[in-house]
User: Which sequence fits this backbone?
C-alpha cells in the first residue's frame, strides 16, 4: 500500500474527526480508509488514533505523526506545484466559504473569472453566514468580514468596507433628512437581528463620538432583506458598502450624515495554519487581492464615484 496515500487519508481522518467523513472526502470506502490507517500503524508500530463511538482523535503519538505527515505532504505538493508550473497549468480543487451576501453579490463573479483564467482548478463554494470551522470541515479558505482576525488561523487582509446609514430618496422626502445623529432615533429603522440585535449604531468624528439607538421596524439576519426594505422606503438602515455601495452610486439609496464615520470592517482571507500554501490557493489569494483593488485598507465598494471609476478602470 502506498504510504503517501495512507498519509493523505490519515491527515483527512485527523482533520475531519472520523473515518466516514474522511472516506467521503478522499473518494474511498470507510473500510479502505481503515486499511490505510492500519498500514501506517503497522509501519510505525504505534496506535495513531483513539477511537470511540462518538469521535476519532489522534493519540499523542498520532498527533506527532500528524505534524510530520502534514509537513511531508505539503512539501511534496509544494515541490510538485513548483516543478509542474513550468510544464502544466495549475490543477486541483479549492474549497472556499464566505458570507452569503458577500459571496453571492461579489465573490461568485470573481470565482467564475478565476476559473476561466485557470481552467485546471475546480472550486467548491459554500456561501453561509454560520460560523464555519475551516479545519474540521475541510475548507482551504474562508472569507470573513470582521473587525479582527481569528488568531488561530493564517490570514490576509484583502480590503476594507465602510458602514453607511442610508435611506431611499422617497423616505427622506417624507420624513426629512436628519441633521444630527440623535434625530435618527425618531425614524423607523431596519436592523440586524443576529448574532444579537444591532440597535446601537456607533459614530465618530474628529471631536466627538456616540451611538444612535435605533427604533427597529424590521429586524432581520439578512443584510439583503434590510437593503430591499430600505429601497422600498420603509426606514433607515446601517449597512456596509459591499451591500449598499452600488445603490448609493446609482442614487437608489442616500447616505445620511455621511460626514460622520459609521465604522469599518476588514475583509479577510483565512486559511489553516500551514507552513506551505498550495499553489492553487496562493494564486486565488493573489487574484482576489488584485481584483479587490490591491489595497488592504481600501474600500473597493466605496460609493465615491471618483474612487470607484478609478478602480473599475484599473
Assistant:
Amino acid at each position: 500500500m502506498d504510504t503517501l496515500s495512507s498519509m493523505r487519508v490519515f491527515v483527512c481522518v485527523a482533520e475531519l474527526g472520523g473515518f466516514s467523513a474522511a472516506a467521503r472526502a478522499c473518494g474511498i470506502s470507510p473500510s479502505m480508509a481503515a486499511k490505510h490507517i492500519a498500514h501506517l500503524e503497522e509501519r510505525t508500530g504505534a496506535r495513531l488514533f483513539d477511537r470511540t463511538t462518538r469521535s476519532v482523535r489522534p493519540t499523542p503519538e498520532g498527533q506527532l505523526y500528524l505534524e510530520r505527515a502534514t509537513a511531508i505532504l505539503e512539501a511534496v505538493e509544494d515541490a510538485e506545484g513548483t516543478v509542474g508550473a513550468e510544464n502544466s497549468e495549475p490543477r486541483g480543487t479549492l474549497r472556499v466559504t464566505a458570507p452569503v451576501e458577500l459571496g453571492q453579490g461579489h465573490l461568485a463573479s470573481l470565482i467564475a473569472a478565476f476559473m476561466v483564467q485557470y481552467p485546471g482548478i475546480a472550486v467548491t463554494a459554500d456561501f453561509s453566514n454560520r460560523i464555519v470551522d475551516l479545519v474540521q470541515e475541510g475548507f482551504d479558505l474562508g472569507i470573513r468580514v470582521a473587525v479582527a482576525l481569528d488568531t488561530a488561523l493564517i490570514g490576509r487582509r484583502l480590503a476594507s468596507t465602510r458602514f453607511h446609514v442610508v435611506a431611499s430618496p422617497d423616505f427622506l422626502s417624507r420624513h426629512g433628512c436628519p441633521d444630527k445623529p440623535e434625530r435618527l432615533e425618531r425614524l423607523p429603522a431596519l436592523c440586524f437581528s443576529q448574532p444579537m440585535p444591532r440597535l446601537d449604531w456607533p459614530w465618530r468624528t474628529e471631536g466627538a463620538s456616540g451611538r444612535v439607538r435605533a427604533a427597529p421596524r424590521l429586524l432581520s439576519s439578512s443584510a439583503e432583506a434590510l437593503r430591499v426594505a430600505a429601497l422600498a422606503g420603509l426606514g433607515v438602515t446601517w449597512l456596509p458598502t459591499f451591500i449598499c455601495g452600488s445603490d448609493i452610486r446609482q442614487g437608489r439609496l442616500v447616505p445620511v450624515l455621511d460626514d460622520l464615520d459609521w465604522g469599518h470592517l476588514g475583509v479577510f482571507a483565512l486559511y489553516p495554519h500551514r507552513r506551505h500554501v498550495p499553489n492553487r490557493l496562493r494564486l486565488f489569494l493573489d487574484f482576489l487581492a488584485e481584483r479587490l483593488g490591491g489595497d488592504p485598507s481600501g474600500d473597493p465598494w466605496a460609493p465615491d464615484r471618483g474612487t470607484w471609476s478609478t478602480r473599475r478602470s484599473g
